[in-house]
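Please review this one.

:::
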Amino acid sequence: MAAPVGASVQSRYLRCPFLGEVNRLRVSGVSTPRAAVVRKIVECKESRIGKQPIAVPSNVTLTIDGQDLKVKGPLGELALTYPGEIKLDKEDGGILKVSKTVETRRANQMHGLFRTLTNNMMVGVSKGFEKRLQLVGTGYRAAVEGKDIVLNLGFSHPVRMEIPKSLQVKVEENTRIIVSG
């Protein structure tokens, strides 16, 4: 019978192919497989998304106050609080960079996320977003009535939904819905 993982060796390093060559798994020596503790030793890598600079449009104003970011533009104002592992640097020429303050696994996870959230804030307050939807089905229709959108989707009754104040909804040809905001 084979010995449980880590039972015969006090500390063993295993190569983990899906994490790449620089990352390894360390299995601590314990008596049973259930109690085996697996620790991942991560050599921090730079995020492909996180290291890209963010272009700040000329009609957008930024306010960085510690870990708080406020973005104001023609379409509104947004705010976001960053964790301590992430730092914002405003450079000349309307460039914003997101960087890590520490080299931890959590910082790696947050780096790309907060760069993308910041970029989406810039686009949202300057140009806005638009999504086109199409209803597919016999008898499916949509119409805007005042502040509501009315959908006929095969139920015995029409479905009414209130349109949020921050969104604009248009209906083309009864089956195409354009949501923007």
Summary: The radius of gyration is 25 Å. The chain has one helix and 15 strands. The longest strand covers residues 68-73. Residues 105-126 form the longest helix (22 residues).
